[in-house]
Design a protein that fits this description.
Layout (H helix, E strand, L loop, with lengths): L24 E15 L14 E12 L4 E14 L2 E17 L3 H30 L12 H22 L9
Helix pairs in contact: 1-2
Amino acid sequence: MADEGDVLTNLDNQPLGNGADNQPTAGFLVQYIKDLSVENPNAPAAFQWTDQPQLDLQFNIAVNNVSDEVSEVELKINASATCESGQLYMVELLYAGLVGIRNLPEEQAHMFLFAEAPRILFPFARRVMADATRDMGFQPLMVDPIDFNGLYIQRMQERQQEEGGAQANMGGPASGNA
């Protein structure tokens, strides 16, 4: 039998666990364009317009469970440029990745899926958006970096406040005359 100081221990001097895969792990298995729609509805006339374009940029993050240990994270980006003369372009991108998560507490897994995974996907989605607008004949759309972690924290704080308000309205601890 192995002693405590034997070779069959890891660097933390803890037993290896007979090959059990019990270490927390999270990472991408694959990234891909799930859907891409590019429209240049007023070409070639739009290339003659001199109006200053207005850009509308929208983001959304969705997570779909594929199995117990694999989730699909979708980063959806919609960009639309218009000017007084009309619509210049519309680009809708759904960029996704399969994320494997094992032995991670639920709270940490949630944060990884909704904050860290979109941060990792974003540079690739940004490049697709820039290439699409450039290939339509316009200046490449260089989307500014996004603080997904900050947005995640902000959204979780908003959710806590909403839940706190809902509990108060649903007969939380009574106040007033006893």
